[in-house]
Amino acid sequence: MSSPTGRELTIYLYLFSIIAVFPFLTSASSSLKFDLFGNMYRVHVINGFSSNDLPFLLHCWSSNDDLGHHSLYIGGDFNFHFGLRIIPPSTRFWCDMNRGPKYIPQVSVFEEDEVLHLCSHTQQCYWRGQDNGLYFCNDNSSYFKLYDWYIRKKER
């Protein structure tokens, strides 16, 4: 058996580099649309409140990406897509959600170990803020309530 030539080593190194870097390319800020492993997910956060008197305020992030601050009005949909990490740590995203005195801090909008099974059928996770709480579904129609709002006390 002969040893690999310089050209073969270059090809092997190139292929290894692609395989090693691929998991890091599928972050939420990536524009990568190719889904070789079928592991792309999309998270939606929707304003389902009954009035536009106050915006629905969001700040979403992961350990690798800050997705910024967003103001949504009725029907507004902030959404992002990402690929599951192939190597640990697992994929996680959180959002702080506020509307006037109502708030829920650090909602785990996607956590591979907890939410994944809820979203895996459609590869979509929908969160909708409504007057009486925060709702979830995976098809944008069969929502169920997961959280009540906390209410900030007025300062005197």
From TrEMBL:
Major site of localization recorded for this protein: secreted
One Gene Ontology term, aspect cellular component: extracellular region
Pfam families: Self-incomp_S1 (PF05938)
Coiled coil residues, start to end: none
GO biological process: rejection of self pollen
Identification of the protein by name: S-protein homolog
Domain of life: Eukaryota
Keywords noted in UniProt: Membrane, Secreted, Self-incompatibility, Signal, Transmembrane, Transmembrane helix
